[in-house]
Inverse folding.
């Protein structure tokens, strides 16, 4: 099969790629380069005084034990968010894939939460579970449960993970549903005729055929958990109680935007960038091998 | 990073959009603020009245989001070379603004150069002290000021057979226990802004330093020292009372205030500007009492310090524009106007004359508790420890202190350990700030 397109002019392919390239350079590489430069500088919030400090910003970070705690916490949060939102979405997608009455309604309702911005997700969950504002929190406390995520770090962490995972479920659901519908029905029928029960059909037929979707979503979810959850954290816990919900990206936000410490914030985002590049590299190198396209 | 650039880009886009209107003979003055609801109406009316009063200048107010949002928008706009003329900055941003020599124009200089009549002594010292250098030079113009008061549910006190509103901390603790027994089981007392109330105000109210160098007013080489016996004892008390919910922590900001208006917490320490919400929502008799104090501390209570915001004038504008800004500040200082702002917004009057006038008009007769924050602020002549705070990176500093207090309340650290660590971490941040502050 011929995969390569053949261009007669030598310039045409470059011209066709140029707009895309320009977008990538201007919106991805240029800010990334800026971050790298900024990470070597010490600057006040107004940009009035700037001095070049070599690796001071990095050295300070690595001397801070709280920074390492935050790295470990971020990995834990990301793992928990990715696993719970993926498994829940898969369960929902499998159920919504069945011929049910009103299935379109279910599907539409399940997709809705994706349209909600992360800080709004935070606010929604606050109205349910904040110790003084939350509707559910009142019932919990009336039932004798000591619900106070403002002081209990486990409760706070759970709250963040649940809210962040909840928002991502819709996105995962969409892809899983599309993936499920792409699997030919004849394969299931053949398996059913062979006497495979639903669970076995799922694990031996559906799951392997879904593996490209699962792999793609795994990457997307980890990146989401790393980068897009700070809005949720900011509205729900502001990193508290203590520092028990400060993740790497929230630290970037709070040091840079709230604290005006742009040098350290830039150094942190460079580290974060490297971490995610490495992580994605690992996924493609090792996990992708198990994927059958 | 991307966020910061987006902010800058948005600021550029916005200022370009505003600047695109044809330049008339009228000089436009941009005023960025963070007021919503009724207070936004106050701002709009002030701008309209000023614009109607003369034809040379036009003040254009723009809402820029929350206090930190407004400040960040202003900083981003400055970096992009498009700062507004007037920026409303909350009191914790004072040091950051002050450190930015060249980015801001001190108010006393502005008034001098514009030849406007300006007497710093006409303003309430408890308010202007916060925004002045130790030499008494006013750097920003006080606009909306408040202070911490103790909101009390009077019906609850009656229910628990408590005769009088508690005055001291030991009385508060004792009454909270009685209230708990009388049915307020989940929260005897609480408060918002945990560091403002329990560290900053506590220290000033007892004439105890929070930091060296007059709490930072005399220089950026200040060191925190709020791990002294008073603050440690107070936090120990809170930790002890948290165990059975006689005290129940309600968060770093004011999201817990609903616990007072809903009737869950009968005693609640927070800003006097909470008044509007209390009046609208509380279905019980209430009052705003002065903050409690420890009677064994000599000289307590001293005076409280302010919250709220002030107006900063940004640098690099033309003399003509500054003239307009100065005229606008004179316009704001007018006694009748100050009385009107005071009544309309619930914030404090900033001039002595306005306070006297409100008193003479009998404004505090029906609602004496509206005077409470003023009485606290003017309780005694401010000292080095009670004039105000000027610490760099205050927003983040407060988050760090809150983190440590939360550790203590959750039982993970002792009160002493938590405050020691809050001081240590805070000092590191102050040194960081000192390095970048323009000399």
């Amino acid at each position: 099969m011929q995969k390569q397109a053949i261009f007669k002019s030598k310039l045409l392919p470059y011209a066709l790629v140029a707009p895309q390239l320009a977008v990538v350079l201007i919106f991805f590489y240029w800010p990334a380069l800026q971050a790298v430069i900024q990470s070597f500088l010490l600057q006040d919030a107004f940009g009035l005084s700037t001095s070049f400090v070599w690796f001071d910003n990095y050295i300070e970070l690595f001397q801070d034990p709280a920074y390492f705690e935050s790295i470990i916490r971020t990995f834990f949060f990301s793992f928990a968010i990715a696993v719970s939102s993926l498994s829940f979405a898969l369960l929902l997608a499998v159920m919504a894939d069945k011929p049910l009455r009103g299935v379109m309604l279910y599907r539409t309702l399940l997709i809705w939460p994706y349209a909600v911005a992360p800080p709004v997700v935070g606010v929604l969950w606050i109205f349910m579970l904040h110790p003084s504002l939350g509707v559910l929190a009142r019932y919990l406390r009336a039932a004798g449960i000591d619900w106070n995520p403002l002081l209990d770090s486990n409760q706070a962490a759970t709250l963040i993970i649940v809210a962040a995972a909840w928002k991502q479920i819709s996105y995962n659901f969409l892809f899983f549903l599309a993936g499920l519908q792409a699997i030919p029905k004849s394969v299931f029928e053949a398996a059913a005729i062979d006497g495979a029960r639903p669970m076995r059909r799922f694990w031996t037929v559906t799951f392997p055929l879904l593996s490209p979707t699962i792999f793609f979503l795994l990457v997307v979810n980890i990146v989401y958990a790393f980068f897009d959850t700070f809005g949720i954290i900011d509205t729900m816990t502001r990193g508290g109680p203590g520092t028990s919900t400060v993740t790497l990206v929230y630290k970037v936000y709070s040091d840079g935007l709230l604290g005006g410490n742009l040098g350290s914030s830039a150094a942190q985002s460079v580290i974060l960038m490297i971490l995610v590049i490495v992580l994605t590299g690992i996924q493609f190198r090792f996990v992708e091998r198990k994927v059958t396209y | 990073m991307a966020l910061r650039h987006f902010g800058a880009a948005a600021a550029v886009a916005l200022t370009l959009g505003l600047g695109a209107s044809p330049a008339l003979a009228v000089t436009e003055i941009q005023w960025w603020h963070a007021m919503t609801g009724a207070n936004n109406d106050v701002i709009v009316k002030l701008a309209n009245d000023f614009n109607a009063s003369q034809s040379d200048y036009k003040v254009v107010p723009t809402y820029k989001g929350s206090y930190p949002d407004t400040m960040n928008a202003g900083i981003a706009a400055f970096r992009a070379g498009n700062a507004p003329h007037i920026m409303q900055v909350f009191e914790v941003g004072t040091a950051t603004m002050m450190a930015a020599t060249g980015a801001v124009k001190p108010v006393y200089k502005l008034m001098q150069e514009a030849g406007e009549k300006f007497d710093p002594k006409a303003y309430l010292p408890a308010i202007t002290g916060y925004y002045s250098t130790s030499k008494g030079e006013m750097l920003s113009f006080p606009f909306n000021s408040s202070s911490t008061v103790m909101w009390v549910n009077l019906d609850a006190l009656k229910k628990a057979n408590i005769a009088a509103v508690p005055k001291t901390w030991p009385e508060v603790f004792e009454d909270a226990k009685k209230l708990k027994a009388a049915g307020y089981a989940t929260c005897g007392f609480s408060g918002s802004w945990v560091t403002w109330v329990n560290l900053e105000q506590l220290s000033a109210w007892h004439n105890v330093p929070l930091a060296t160098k007059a709490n930072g007013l005399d220089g950026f080489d200040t060191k925190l020292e709020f791990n002294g016996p008073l603050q440690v004892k107070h936090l120990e008390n809170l930790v002890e009372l948290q165990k059975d919910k006689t005290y129940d922590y309600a968060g770093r900001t004011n999201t817990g205030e609903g616990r007072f208006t809903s009737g869950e917490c009968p005693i609640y320490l927070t800003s006097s500007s909470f008044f509007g919400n209390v009046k609208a929502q509380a279905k019980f008799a209430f009052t705003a009492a002065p903050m409690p104090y420890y009677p064994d501390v000599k000289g307590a209570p001293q005076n409280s310090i302010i919250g709220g915001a002030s107006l900063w004038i940004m640098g690099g504008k033309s003399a003509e524009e500054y003239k307009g800004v100065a005229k606008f500040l004179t316009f704001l200082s007018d006694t009748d106007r100050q009385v009107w702002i005071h009544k309309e917004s619930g914030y404090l009057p900033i001039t002595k004359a306005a306070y006297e006038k409100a008193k003479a008009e009998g404004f505090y007769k029906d609602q004496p508790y509206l005077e409470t924050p003023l009485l606290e602020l003017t309780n005694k002549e401010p000292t080095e420890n009670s004039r105000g705070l000027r610490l760099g990176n205050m927003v983040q500093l407060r988050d760090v202190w809150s983190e440590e207090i939360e550790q203590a309340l959750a039982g993970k650290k002792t009160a002493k350990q938590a405050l020691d660590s809050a001081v240590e971490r805070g000092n590191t941040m102050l040194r960081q700030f000192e390095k970048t502050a323009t000399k």
Summary: The first strand of chain A starts at residue 41 and ends at 43. Residues 65-96 of chain A form the longest helix (32 residues). The interface with chain B takes residues 31, 34-35, 38, 42-49, 126, 130-133, 141, 148, 150-153, 238-243, 253-262, 264-266, 269 of chain A (CB under 8 Å).
